[in-house]
Specification:
By secondary structure, this protein is mainly beta. The protein is built from 2 helices and 31 strands. The strands form 6 sheets. Strands 16, 19, 20, 22, 27, 28, 29 and 31 form an 8-stranded antiparallel beta sheet that branches. The protein has an 8-stranded antiparallel beta sheet with strand order 17-18-21-30-23-24-25-26, with no helix packed on it. A 4-stranded antiparallel beta sheet has the order 1-2-3-4, with no helix packed on it.
């Protein structure tokens, strides 16, 4: 290689290898150098430099182009910048910045999208998906083990995350984790059970190159998996907590996803036949509630929360976070859906809708947050939307049927059913 260096990336396009960026040591400074190696002739050629010096970055290849993502330009720096390199024209183009500023990261491409994983010391667990076709980013589920200086590789539609470091002491990890970005679709019609409706939809798109439900073509692989899950419940991968509230007695509501059960008074009133989806929990508006150990820091991630409710009164809270904010509640003035989750800055404020939810009818209420935009939903319809410069953080457990500080008047009086938390922004 003409330029001696480390901490660079290599990518292959049209049987040629592109060595990009790098530095002589961990302290930098970084190079802008791009060199192409042709194994057929065992020769090197200099190519157009990176627009900015970069090392400790990540690279991914999609549709004959190389994407250089994040990294550093010298010691104790990091950048969110993304650059696209087209070997056919030997040109660079700046693309949308990555959501997370980091270095010591890794990336792998699956089904035309690049998955940027981990990084930094102390390490991150972040996983973000970049779609070159739309130049957009999406937050995906964090990997179980935070790590930097890691290696990733894609095989058969899955990404394998291998090794890395876990602390500032640079002690190496032997941990290997498998990530499946686009698992096979089973529940084609979205009703969360595999049945004849799904078989009918599968047959409609049989062996077509594209379907509305998956990146993969619908084929015998789907048929075999569908048979394995026949008449079984299939829940979305992004669902991280789910209280069905179908219990019949006692003071415990079971979480169907992560085991973060909810706990309340032993004499809670369950309505097995009166829920919107199966049974429901009826709260008295005095001291009934469910406290859970499930915790999601709103400052750290995209998320959504949804629940069915019937009844309630102005000022009463559906979902809150202990010591944090009231996530979903009825406006104290008129019973319209609102949220108090907001930025901690001086421009932060509640988001209020114009839709009353305390009219005695069943309503599915929800809030989604994608890292920049808050959206409130009632019965599948967007009823309020704005942007915030982040959300205030909290580590408290989630509470169902009461306010963040158990305030008098915040306890919900009515039925609550099917409470769901997702780790991404969901559109109902």
């Amino acid at each position: 290689m003409p330029t001696a260096r480390g901490f660079f990336t290599t990518s292959v396009i049209n049987s040629k290898i592109y060595a990009i960026g790098g530095a002589l040591g961990t302290g930098g400074p970084a190079f802008r150098t791009v060199e192409e190696y042709d194994p057929a002739t065992d020769t090197w050629a200099r190519k157009a430099d990176l627009p900015e010096p970069r090392y400790l970055h990540a690279a991914g290849v999609v549709d004959g182009k190389i994407y250089i993502i994040a990294g550093s330009w010298q010691a104790y720096t990091a950048s969110p910048a993304v650059y696209e390199y087209d070997p056919a024209t030997d040109t660079w183009e700046r693309k949308t910045d990555a959501p997370t500023v980091r270095s010591w990261l890794s990336a792998s491409a699956v089904d035309g999208r690049i998955y940027v994983i981990g990084g930094d010391v102390p390490p991150k667990a972040n996983v973000e998906e970049y779609d070159p076709a739309t130049d957009t980013w999406t937050r995906r589920a964090d990997m179980p083990t935070p790590r930097g200086a890691l290696s990733t590789t894609a095989l058969n539609g899955k990404i394998y995350v291998i090794g890395g470091t876990a602390t500032t002491a640079y002690n190496g990890l032997s941990t290997v984790e498998e990530y499946y970005p686009n698992p096979l679709v089973l529940d084609f019609d979205g009703d969360e059970i595999v049945n004849f409706k799904d078989f009918s939809v599968l047959a409609q798109y049989w062996y077509q190159d594209q379907s509305p439900f998956a990146v993969h073509s619908v084929d015998y692989e789907h048929l075999a998996v569908l048979a394995d899950y026949w008449l079984k419940e299939v829940l979305p991968d992004s669902l991280v907590a789910y209280w069905k509230l179908d219990e019949t007695e006692g003071g415990v509501a079971h979480d169907s996803i992560g085991g973060e059960d909810g706990f309340g008074p032993p004499d809670l009133l369950w309505r097995p036949e009166d829920g919107k989806v199966g049974g429901a929990l009826e709260l008295d508006g005095i001291d009934d509630l469910l406290y859970t150990t499930f915790s999601l820091n709103p400052a750290d991630t995209s998320f959504s929360v949804f629940a069915w409710v019937k009844g309630g009164a102005p000022g009463q809270v559906i979902i809150s976070q202990a010591g944090g904010a009231d996530w979903l509640l009825a406006d104290p003035a008129d019973g319209k859906l609102m949220t108090e989750l907001r930025s901690s800055g001086r421009f932060g404020g509640p988001l209020k809708s114009q839709t009353v939810i305390t009219d005695g009818a069943w309503h599915r209420v929800g809030l989604s947050w994608d890292g920049a935009t808050r959206i409130l939903y009632v019965d599948g319809i967007e009823v309020a939307k704005d942007t915030q410069a982040g959300l205030a953080g909290s580590q408290g457990g989630l509470q169902i049927g009461t306010g963040k500080n158990l305030e008098l008047g915040s306890f919900f009086s009515g039925l609550i059913d099917d409470v769901r938390i997702y780790d991404r922004a969901v559109t109902p």
